[in-house]
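Hi C.,

You asked whether I'd gotten around to modeling the 572-residue construct. I have! Everything is below, sequence then structure, no commentary in between.
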Amino acid sequence: MALAPHAASISVSETLALLDGQFEAFAKGVAEDRYVLWLGSGISFGRVDGLKNVVPRVIEFLRARIDVGDPVCRFKAALEEALVLAHLSDDEKRRIDFTRPFVDWPDATAITERLIGEYAHLLETPVEGEPEDFVLWNGVNITATFADPALEPDIEHICIAILILEGLASEIASANWDGLVEKAVERLTRGTPALVVCVRPEDLREPELKARLFKFHGCAVKACGDEATFRPYLVGRQSQIHGWVAQPENAAMVNRLIDLIAAKPTLMMGLSAQDANIQAIFAHAEARMAWPWPGDRPSYVFSENVIGVDQRGLLKNVYRAAYTAVSRQRIMDSALIRAFAKPLLVALVLHVLCSKLRRLIELAPGALGAGEQQALQDGVLAVRDLLAAAAEPDRLTFMHDLIDQGSRAITLFRDGHAGAPPRPYNPISPMPLQQMAADMSLPASGLREVAVATGILGVGVKDGSWNLDVTDPTDSTAGAIRVNSPAASAKMFFAANSQAALRLRHHGHLVDGDEAILVHSLEVPLRLPRSPRGAPGRTGKLGLREVSIANLMSEVATSAELVQRFREEIAL
């Protein structure tokens, strides 16, 4: 039997296979905004310094301030107290030289490794005459490490922002100090407020936007912007972590997080759950209203390669009586999705976008029954799987391209004009899967019909009738996609309604005489006079072809007939 892929090396396609199979109920839960995302430092790995960099920085911060001529130097006393946490051997103690930078110490690597496990105690190190958080604030260098404006969102932050704007991540709890999720959301909305960042109890009273981000360990960006107000909320020292749940000033945040844990299942990414306050609030939530096991879907999912000791302890605490010698392995198997945040989040984005299109096919008008709709839904899956294969190896570039191409296509479809880049992210629907049927604007939106068109194109990909290519987003006359058959090739546009179709021509995206296909969601409007830029006379080209999905859907009873009629209309 082949070994399962490692969580770091698993591909997006392999992760999608997990979401289609063992974790299908979990993936559907994400599409229904059922899960709270719990984020840890692992999702910012590579963008923000981890403990391997922070620990040496703290040691060097203290060492560099030692006055070797002062026998009672307060910084030397603080550093010696910090080094006690590393349990140095006699030989290691003899090799310490406070006059040399820490990086040059022969045992620097070993000391760093030991102090990583004691990071909260290290940040607690007192320096005489300084505030209690002196080492945390100054030694870690919060401003430069976690609030640097030059820090750029990575794949994880961008995908989370997409889930937020699609209405599928309305509550997020984060132990991270950085502002990368917030920056990703701001980038995708082009500055339109969409995220409420909750650090203080007062923040919980802010009016609703698309999502709430509960930064229960504080926010470096806010602390650097308003030090007096937000610096006290930075949690990292051992005494803060252990006392956090019991502190009266944290009661509102603690209760909100407990309510979230009790009301919604948990997806943890990049979070070891080792901190005592995290363990405590999950235990409190279990006491308030426990999740059953087994249930309709996994109540706890960890994006990891293996279940860590702290995560195993969390599962034992929250499932209690259900966690037995017989059920233990099955509980852990149901909770472990062996994909780290990068492949998991890219796969989740593709999966939920596909789920929304498939739901729109179910809601489309016409006489197609469930079985016939399934064929079109399988076509959408084929398009999704093409995208998943294209995500490798550069997933970050893929996500940027997906956002750019997708937003351009939706803007052309809805407005008949692509607009100037960078464009804001355009969700398929700003609401979760189960709410889409109640959207009163859906019949006039054209979304149901364009989902059907996507399914038809996917059916053609599956049976080899054509293949699909991306277009150049900088070319105003390029279509949303290009469709290539063995006989011909044409760019394809989509129009939500007659106004969008007219505006495609008005803005010069569609030029008569071009080898192009215009797919109308609704009825085909009356043609405008021929564009003066179109080629006169016979050219040997078919020119512009127009097809109405609404008309086709009203005239057919099977998906096969629908696909055939579409092929005939577009003449490819």
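If it helps when you're writing up: The radius of gyration is 28 Å.

Thanks,
B.
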